[in-house]
Design brief:
Serine Threonine Protein Phosphatase 5, Tetratricopeptide repeat; TPR_rpt; 268 residues; mainly alpha; signal; Pilus assembly protein TadD; single chain; TPR repeat; 15 helices; TPR-like_helical_dom_sf
């Protein structure tokens, strides 16, 4: 069975940090950013996960100008923090969300997005607290359960995380984002076969987007099947976005020469 034993511990740590940041983004908290009135459509009709770097930079500038005029506009601030996070400006996104959480201390959507920003900035304990405060125990939200589980995975609480993923799936069966995050959980512990099973189920589920397929490409690539991984990464995307996904895939697997280490490793 293929595992990640051929990749050294430092590479696994770097890969885990990068991938689980993406996993938190895939969790339901991110979904609200794309469907809220006043979201990315205000600057562009193209979904955020299909924007290239230039379009994202333009969106950041446009939202920034609007945000300066009215930082208490909740849909605007949520969208602005989202595009900031997509461009790697996690500290700035966190500052936007912290200010919004002060203005809306009881708002579940704001607390959930705040938790996402905290996790992206590596503040996992605070992120967990924010997501749990947003949850309603009597009527649990599957998006928040999945987001909480992704944070727990980053903290090394694997069993508790997987229990929450399955609770989320009980509420929202066959949800692509939950299945993808569950696959990530197994990938981070080196069980690539189980990870691929969940990733393929996620990619085949209704609502699966390019980020879900990118995660599938990553787990396939980690097993040394690079041509198949590139085919998956290019599927249903524009040439520019597909190339960006390929570069991301190669960058993740290039840490500590892991791409070459896995590519040269005999198949088992």
């Amino acid at each position: 069975m293929a595992t990640m034993r051929g990749v050294d511990k430092r590479c696994r740590f770097i890969l885990a940090a990068a991938v689980m940041t993406l996993a938190v983004g895939i969790a339901g908290c991110a979904t609200t950013d794309r469907t809220t009135t006043g979201s990315i459509a205000r600057s562009s009709a193209r979904p955020i996960d299909q924007m290239n770097s230039l379009q994202l930079a333009q969106a950041v500038q446009s939202y920034g100008l609007q945000y300066q005029k009215n930082p208490r506009d909740k849909p605007l601030a949520l969208a602005y923090a989202n595009v900031l996070g997509m461009t790697g400006r996690n500290d700035q996104a966190l500052a936007v969300m912290r200010a919004l959480a002060i203005s809306y201390p009881q708002d579940r959507q704001v607390l959930a997005a705040y938790g996402k920003s905290l996790a992206s900035a590596g503040q996992f304990e605070a992120a967990l607290d924010a997501v749990r405060r947003a949850q309603t125990p009597a009527y649990p939200d599957w998006k928040l359960l999945s987001a909480e589980a992704a944070i727990l995975d980053q903290m090394g609480e694997t069993n508790e995380a997987r229990t929450l993923y399955r609770r989320a799936l009980d509420i929202q069966p066959n949800e692509a984002s939950i299945l993808s995050n569950l696959g990530m959980s197994y990938m981070l512990t080196g069980d690539l076969n189980t990870a691929e099973t969940h990733m393929r189920n996620a990619a085949a589920a209704p609502g699966a987007d390019s980020r879900v397929r990118q995660n599938l490409a990553l787990v396939v690539g980690l097993q040394g099947r690079f041509q198949e991984a590139e085919t998956i990464a290019r599927r249903e995307l524009s040439p520019q976005q597909a190339e960006a996904n390929i570069q991301y895939l190669r960058a993740m697997l290039a840490q500590q020469n892991s791409w070459n280490m896995l590519k040269d490793k005999p198949k088992s």
